[in-house]
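Design request, tokens follow.
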């Protein structure tokens, strides 16, 4: 995942373990892209708003 997101393994590990409490925007954007999530979906999930994306759980429709 780190390679696909063009991030270092240490960066991904730091985000996963919470060592980086507020990762950089670019880091979040790259990870979201690799995971098939939109930034809008992440924002909605973080702010407890309903997700309006029409994508399935398996990825883009």
């Amino acid at each position: 995942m780190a390679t696909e997101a063009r991030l270092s393994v240490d960066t991904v590990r730091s985000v996963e373990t919470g060592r980086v409490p507020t990762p950089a925007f670019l880091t979040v954007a790259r990870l979201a892209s690799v995971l098939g999530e939109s930034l809008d979906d992440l924002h909605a999930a973080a702010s407890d708003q309903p997700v309006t994306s029409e994508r399935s759980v398996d990825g883009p429709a």
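Comment from the thread starter after seeing the answer: thanks! Residues 5 and 12 are 9 Å apart (CA to CA).
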